[in-house]
What does this fold into?
Amino acid sequence: MHPTPTVRRRIIAATVTTAVTALIMGTGTVTATAASAVSAVPVATAAPVERSGPSGHAGPYARLGPVAELSARRLATADLVAAAKWGTDSPIDDPAREQQVLDTVARLATELGADPAATVRIFRDQIEANKDVQRALHRRWDADASQAPTERPDLAEVRAEINRLNDGIVRAIAGSARDRTAPYCGVVLLTSAARVGREMSLDAVHMTALARSLNSVCEPEALPRGLSGTGDGR
It folds into this structure.
């Protein structure tokens, strides 16, 4: 019996998560202040590793790198969202807001000629990863009030920044459609995630969340042949 696409996707996710964890574990911490600084950088300035291949044409790092970079910057906003909700009645889970995000990215993907279903699948991971960080921070602040934020960010402003990053991520997904089904997808995505993890000094919580946010970027077709059991990666 050959693995189903869902099973293959889970194998890819587990492989990438383990590798990212090994590469960027324990390199520092991300604070709400740092997250604010990172999210303030214009989307257009994201500069992935190896922007071109030997022939001078844009290579897979130039196309997949922004997916990892913008995902990490989106994840950094989780610190701000957590701080905005801390000490209020606002729940971490917000189904209405989440559906709004998914509907918006699906429409943009369609406009760009990208696969809306794949885009929504990737953004479900993005949303869950963001909530993972929020929950972890709230637990940390519950346990040690001295680490809790002393200022509450404007949630509307934070969400406006998230919307801007969402737009960039959808465009990066649309621009890397071919690469996301290629055998090298996992390696390139892993390398890009590890680099941005080091640059942003992600701690274990944020590193694990980054891996989760990228779980569905590589399509099942990108699974290494040795893991598929079919000899052709399918």
About this structure: Residues 19-57, 224-234 have pLDDT under 50 and may be disordered. DSSP finds nine helices and no strands in the chain. Residues 116-143 form the longest helix (28 residues). The two ends are 12 Å apart (CA to CA).
